[in-house]
Specification:
Elements (H helix, E strand, L loop, with lengths): L9 H22 L2 E7 L13 E2 L5 E5 L20 E5 L5 E6 L10 E8 L5 E7 L7 E5 L5 E6 L6 E9 L5 E7 L7 E5 L5 E6 L12 E3 L5 E5 L14 E5 L5 E6 L6 E3 L4 E2 L5 E7 L14 E5 L5 E6 L6 E8 L5 E7 L12 E5 L5 E6 L13 E2 L5 E5 L13 E6 L7 E3 L2 E2 L4 E5 L8 E4 L2 E2 L2 E5 L2 E5 L9 E5 L2 E4 L5 E2 L1
Parallel strand pairs: 31-39
Antiparallel strand pairs: 1-29, 2-3, 3-4, 4-5, 6-7, 7-8, 8-9, 10-11, 11-12, 12-13, 14-15, 15-16, 16-17, 18-20, 19-20, 20-21, 21-22, 23-24, 24-25, 25-26, 27-28, 28-29, 30-32, 32-36, 33-34, 33-37, 35-36, 37-38
């Protein structure tokens, strides 16, 4: 915030008034934020949640914990991650239900350590486990909102191992994902799988074009998928390369868009997000221009990259405002929100308990929350925004249970953003089926695609089924409800 000096006399009075206004504005901004710690995991119901939450058709939030639940010899027995992992549902008010605890089958053939969930257009959830399965290399699974789990694929190393991040769904209903290891060169793979389990290995990394993709993929508006690799690339500034950003077509043709060189970031982590301006935004867990005492090569960065590979570093963390960022998402106010695993002002964790921040598309970064162990610590993924407008996220440790470090939390943050609707999928042809998620949808009287009216059926207060109408063009979807008009957070792209 800048301060300007002026002439004496009336200028001094103006400066005093400006100071009062600045303090008042800060107070208003602070009061506009409401942070709540909703759940403290206890170990038996899960521990170490480290991936974004996803909204289901019922308006509740769904996620996974890397540990907790069933404790078996095949699973880690460390305090923070004892157990094989769980899948859970949590209401916006914080009521948690464990839907599934892994290693429920003999030999843990159902998987160990889940790594994320994606919601399908059928209302089921699709995800992966980092290990376990019939070959011990991880699995792909489907789970219903009621908790019935089906294993769709068992990795066998040659087709990948240790699947990571959240899979991205296409408009055709197929999911695309990555494995951090395995494949022909042992540096990870890109794969696709249908909802019925038909699996195709699309690409094998070889380190020079990237290695160890850990953060999943995002579907771009051009129909291609975009992602990052933790290692690899052409830079010699890091032993195994500083990581890359890549584009891959649905047919498996990969293009390396950028190789990090440490000063512009190192070891990208967290799923990319495509902004409303068409560019992609992400974070690197290390590198940049500021040193961190707990990291050898910088505290990490926020970056923007065009679809053709022009990268701009927007912000470098310096420990006081966080370190080791873990991804971003763009909210309906146009700002990006993310978390850092370490850093911040709290002294209840060595090196800080992490932060929650916002950043503009031009790089203005604001710390919104310094975690303090009791309310969570080490947030390992960016928050997400529910259609009620509130942000929800998780921390890997901290909370009120599992002394001394905590098993993790679920939190909410309101920054006074309004409700909206979300479409599944985000694109489709005329006549294609579309699910609209929101709240207060019962009694809706109109659905339009960029102004073109569509026929629809209200399924519940949180779900509408519709089809892309004839004459529709790319633009916002709007739903007229008894309480007013709700607009989609993204443009629906008519193919």
């Amino acid at each position: 915030m800048t301060k300007r000096e002026g002439r004496r006399g009336w200028t001094e009075a103006m400066l005093m008034l400006m100071a009062i206004l600045v303090v008042s504005a800060g107070a208003l901004w602070a009061s506009a934020q409401t942070f709540k710690s909703l759940v403290s995991f206890s170990g038996t119901n899960g521990s170490q949640p480290a991936t974004p939450l996803v909204q289901g058709f019922d308006g509740n939030l769904y996620g996974v914990t890397y540990g907790g639940g069933n404790v078996e010899p095949q699973c880690s027995t460390s305090l923070s991650s004892a157990g094989c992992g769980t899948i859970f549902r949590v209401t916006p008010a914080g009521v948690l239900t464990t839907l599934y605890a892994f290693c429920a089958q003999s030999g843990c053939t159902d998987g160990i350590n889940p790594t994320g969930l994606a919601v399908g257009t059928d209302g089921n959830f699709y995800g992966t486990t980092a290990s376990g399965g019939s070959n011990g290399k991880g699995t792909i699974f489907k789970i219903t909102p009621a908790g019935a789990l089906t294993t769709l694929h068992n990795f066998a190393d040659t087709d990948g191992s240790s699947p990571a991040g959240t899979m991205a769904g296409s408009s055709a209903g197929t999911f695309f994902g990555v494995t951090a290891n395995g494949g022909t060169n042992s540096w990870g793979t890109v794969f696709k799988i249908t909802t019925t389990g038909t699996f195709t290995s699309l690409f094998d990394f070889n380190l020079s074009n990237g290695g160890t993709p850990e953060s999943g993929l995002v579907l771009g508006t051009d129909g291609n998928f975009y992602g990052t690799t933790f290692f690899g690339g052409t830079s010699t500034a890091c032993t195994y390369g500083c990581g890359t950003v890549f584009k891959i077509t649905p047919a498996g043709v990969l293009t390396t868009l950028h190789s990090f060189i440490s000063t512009d970031g190192e070891s990208p982590f967290g799923q990319l997000v495509q902004g409303i301006d068409g560019n992609f935004y992400g974070t690197t867990s290390q590198g940049g221009l500021s040193d961190c005492s707990s990291l050898d090569d910088g505290c990490g960065t926020v970056f923007k990259i065009t679809r053709t590979g022009t990268l701009t570093t927007l912000a470098s963390f310096d420990s006081t405002n966080g370190g080791e960022p873990s991804g971003l998402f763009q909210a309906t106010d146009g700002n990006f929100y993310g978390t850092t695993v370490i850093g911040g002002s709290s002294t209840t964790c060595d090196g800080g308990c992490g932060t929650l921040y916002s950043v503009t598309s031009t790089g203005t970064l604001t710390t919104l929350r310094n975690f303090a162990k009791a309310d969570g610590a080490a947030p390992g993924a960016a928050p997400s925004q529910s259609t009620n407008g509130t942000l929800y996220g998780t921390t890997q440790s901290g909370g009120s249970k599992c002394s001394p470090n905590g098993c993790g939390t679920v939190y909410s943050l309101s920054v006074s953003l309004g409700a909206f609707v979300e479409t599944l999928p985000a694109s489709g042809k005329v006549g294609a089926a579309v699910i609209i998620l929101g709240s207060g949808l019962r009694g809706s009287t109109s659905v339009t695609f960029n102004g073109t009216a569509a026929t629809f059926t209200v399924i519940s207060p949180t779900e509408i089924k519709t089809t892309v109408p004839t004459g529709a063009t790319t633009g916002k979807v709007k739903v007229t409800t008894p309480s007013g008009v709700l607009t989609s957070n993204l443009n629906f792209r008519v193919q």
